[in-house]
Amino acid sequence: MELKEKLLSSFMAFEERIDVHSELHDVRTAAIKNFENKGFPTKKEESWKYTSLNAILKNDFTVFSKQENAVEFNHVKKYFLHEIDTYKVVFIDGVFSSNLSSTTHEGIDVCLMSSALTKPKYKMVIDTYFNQIASKDESLTSLNTAFANEGAYINIPKSKVADKPVEIMYFSTGNEAALMVQPRNLIIVGENSHVQIIERHQSLTENPVLTNSVTEIFAQKRAIVDYYKIQNDTLEANLIDNTYVSQKQESSVSVNTFCFGGNLTRNNLNFYHFGEHIVSYLNGITIIGEKQHVDHYTLVQHSTPNCESHQDYKGIYSDRSTGVFNGKIFVEREAQKTNAFQKSNNILLSDKATINAKPQLEIFADDVKCSHGCTIGQLDETAMFYMQQRGIPKKEAKALLMFAFSNKVIESVKIPELKQRIAKIIATKLGVKMGFDL
């Protein structure tokens, strides 16, 4: 049975076994009908022109894990930011792990999406926010909405600062020959509030995994959200990450995406402005090799005056890897005094590596500062020669140049321990030991 047919046939059984609001039934039904009509995206769609899911969809994915699989903390400790104390919302094969998690309801809510969807005390919040900013038209987002049940629910009330970062962790154990999971996260950050969030999907096996994730982020007036996505998975893991961000007046949201591993990774990142003096940051570093494929699709929709957005994506590609950057800045007629900037800089270390870049500007206002740029090249041979002349071995010189290339994005990380962790991952990817701290 093809995966699409398996998902459609599983939908009724899924709804029968979960306890949901009657209102949510209509949302799910509309979503599954949209997925049934559209199916999985293909390269015939402009936004998927350079990314094909055909090879992945040939796997016989299990839609729901048949049994729970316990994981000891010592086996997965290295994936957590264990140098500091954090809240943790952890899932194993799509099922919440209370042993590995550290949630809270003291002043802020860091808990489970399934609880928020089913408990009456959360009904008003769910009715206000759930599925309000996520696309009703995009087929994979619709698929996730139809099966939305488990994930992280984070609600930071007005004038609250989360006292420590939040880690959202998804582990796949290989309990199934091939597994598909569909986490759904809802994050609400109230007026004058601040939170730092780290998200990671990690396979502990060589069995194929397909993750179709959707995250909705709502930043109210003057809220600050720092979001970090660490993507350093195995070569059998596939991730489709859909993130939707709604910003109100004077809010600041940064989403930093670090792609180092996985078979195929598709990051769909969508920002929507609903107020003046908003600032959005979209940063990314991609370092991949072999036949890995990473696709960044971004949209920033400026609909109000006096707002800013900054996109800075760096890519380093070796072997037969493929990178895609498809970024769009959309400035509506009312969005005067907009400052929007977009950069995609890439280095190809192999003549068989590929980068497809398509920066786009659609501007309907006449008093704006908008720019976009894309560069594709190789390491500076002159700089390499200069460093080697001063006793730096070629391998280390090459690594230093690549560190310098990506340093601006690394500097955007506001959690020192996470910055050090990312620097170490980059050093490992480059095959060197760095004798300095960033």
Task: Provide an overview of this structure.
It is a single chain. With 438 residues, the protein is an alpha/beta fold. 24% of the residues lie in helices and 37% in strands. It has a ten-stranded mixed sheet, with helices on one face. A hairpin with a 2-residue loop joins strand 1 and strand 2. Helix 8 crosses helix 9.
Any key phrases for this structure?
3 domains, 37% strand, 438 residues, ten-stranded mixed sheet, alpha/beta, globular
Distance between the termini: 50 Å
Quick one: how many beta strands? 20
Low-confidence stretches: none
* Proportion of residues in helical segments: 10-25%
What is the radius of gyration computed over CA atoms, rounded to a whole number of angstroms?
Answer: 21 Å
Report the biggest beta sheet as strand number plus sense, adding barrel if it closes: 10 strands, mixed
